[in-house]
């Protein structure tokens, strides 16, 4: 039985850490909602995943560094990060929240 949900439900006004919520997962696909409150990747940490990641900014803004290229994302912008590409979050909205939808796939 399908249960209706809303991506913007149960988001606090702030949090000391990003909030990751898995929305659905099947075979080679996982969908997450990520809520950031100014958080960034820790200094020196680069993600280099075995799966592809497609991210969409639903609210707020972010800067993602792909190796030496800085990509600015605002509401409605999306980015596909192929597996094996080094990346990190350089910035998220400092005055408010950034709500992301992330799809991980192989």
Walk me through this protein's architecture.
Helix content is 0%, strand content 51%. It has a single domain (19-105), classed as Jelly Rolls, CATH 2.60.120. It is mainly β. The protein has strands at 19-26, 29-36, 52-59, 61-66, 69-74, 78-81, 87-92, 98-105. The strands form two sheets. Strands 1-2-8-3-6 form a five-stranded antiparallel sheet, with no helix packed on it. The protein has a three-stranded antiparallel sheet with strand order 5-4-7, with no helix packed on it.
Give a short overview.
The chain has about 110 residues and is mainly beta. It has no helices and eight strands.
- Return the domain count: 1
CATH-scheme architecture = Sandwich
Main beta sheet strand tally, sense and closure: 5 strands, antiparallel
**Which descriptor suits the 3D outline?**
globular
Under CATH, the homologous superfamily reads: Jelly Rolls
Question: What's the arrangement of strands in the largest beta sheet?
Answer: 1-2-8-3-6
Instruction: Briefly note the structural class of the backbone.
Output: mainly beta
CATH topology, which one? Jelly Rolls
Which residues sit in consecutive blocks of at least 5 with pLDDT less than 50?
Answer: none
Total of DSSP H or I helical runs spanning 4+ residues: 0
Termini gap: 27 Å
Number of strands: 8
Task: Assign the CATH class.
Answer: Mainly Beta
Strand residue content: over 45%
Helicity, as a percent range: under 10%
What is the CA-atom radius of gyration, in angstroms?
14 Å
Note the run of SSEs as H and E: EEEEEEEE
What's the rounded overall pLDDT mean? Answer: 96
